[in-house]
Specification:
single chain; 6 helices; mainly alpha
């Protein structure tokens, strides 16, 4: 079934994706198969809709500072108890959770498009002469 691209339909799809991905814990693979089979969406469109669903979910997940402080205090108490029992695995997992809450863990970055960087530029000033010769030969061969 092909779907028209109206704001209402897009909103309904985003809600459906949010339900499946974030509430029912569908894998990305299953979600892609579902959207492709049911709606005939191409890969680019599926990724766009999933990205919109993630952004909408972030908007709903506004957490107050006091809620975060309470959660961290509770986890720190649990960490202390796990350390006293010498349960190192549990302590490690609690530390990881605290880092996640505080935002200390690396965030996944989504990039769309093409990134171009110049291969050679001011770096030539600090390269040894041998490397400069190799770069020059490479550039001459590729012209």
């Amino acid at each position: 079934m092909k779907i028209p691209s109206t704001d209402y339909v897009v909103k309904e799809l985003i809600d459906e994706i949010s339900e499946m991905r974030f509430r029912k814990n569908w894998s990305m693979g299953n979600l892609h198969k579902y959207l492709e089979n049911k709606y005939g969406l191409n890969k680019t469109r599926r990724w766009e809709l999933i990205k919109l669903a993630k952004e909408e979910l972030r908007d709903y997940q506004q957490v107050s500072g006091s809620d975060l402080e309470e959660a961290i205090e509770s986890l720190e108490t649990m960490l202390q108890e796990a350390s006293e029992r010498k349960d190192h695995k549990l302590a490690f997992n609690i530390r990881r959770e605290i880092s996640d809450i505080k935002g200390l863990k690396k965030q996944q970055i989504e990039i769309q498009g093409k990134i171009e960087m110049p291969l050679f530029g001011p770096i030539n000033d600090i390269l040894p002469d041998v490397d400069k010769d190799k770069i020059e030969r490479f550039n001459n061969n590729n012209e």
